Amino acid sequence: AGVGGSYLSLVIVNRFTENISAGQGYLALAAVIVGRWHPLGAAAAVLVFTLVDALQASLQGNLLFGVRVPADVLN
User: Which helix (H) or strand (E) holds 2?
Assistant: First the structure.
């Protein structure tokens, strides 16, 4: 998580701002715990977390079963 955070701030964005990773380090730790400390389990958990995150991002502002769901509920 530390190497990933430093790569994000130094290489991808090329500057450091507060809350740059938006809590993704905690999500990585949660994926390892959900994956029962096994690399394949952690990879599966990351895929599920990513799928849910992409789903909520695509549903924001759209109708779900005929109802507009607030972004706070989806987050």
Answer: helix 2-7
Token pair 């005929």 in the structure block, residue: 66
CA distance 1 to 62: 33
Per-residue pLDDT reduced to its tens digit, 6-54: 787 778 777 777 777 677 778 888 999 999 999 999 999 999 998 988 8
Question: Considering the entire predicted model, what is its pTM?
Answer: 0.65
Higher-scoring residue by pLDDT: 1, 16: 16
Question: What DSSP string describes 6-75?
Answer: HHIIIIISSS--TTSSTTHHHHHHHHHHHTTT-HHHHHHHHHHHHHHHHHHHHHTTSEETTEE--HHHH-
Structural tokens at position 58:
């695509």
CA 45 to chain centre: 11
